[in-house]
Design goal:
By secondary structure, this protein is an alpha+beta fold. It contains four helices and four strands, in the order E-E-E-H-E-H-H-H. It has helices spanning 46-58, 71-80, 82-101, 109-113, and strands at residues 9-12, 24-28, 31-35, 63-66. The strands form two sheets. Strands 1-4 form a two-stranded parallel ribbon. Helix 2 (71-80) runs antiparallel to helix 3 (82-101). It starts with 8 loop residues before the first strand and ends in a 7-residue tail after the last helix. The mean pLDDT is 81.
Length: 120
Amino acid sequence: MCRHVGVTICCPGPVAALIPGSPRMVWGSQGMILAPAARSSSKLPARRCVALIAAAAAHGLDEVWMARHPILAVAYLCSMLPRLGRMLLKRVGPKRARNMKCGKSGYDISNMFSGEPVQS
């Protein structure tokens, strides 16, 4: 009956706010808090994300993942090789959380693989 209906599943990664400097809700040590938005070069600009979604829908793609590296590479790794992805996330995840808690970028590759190992 409905022959010309298409569905595109869009999976955007970290997307920068459209309005620079607008506050965002984050989970902090006291629960949900309002934090100022930091400029992050690792987040995908909102306009680029919208353009990619529109292009994907126009071309009739079934599934689209949108993010910058290393986030996109890790997403692919976890999808294609789940055991290896899990091993990587167990190593990188705690360091990334510690870096973000200290105010560093959670997306910087050099911060993810440097420093002492985290005890589980």
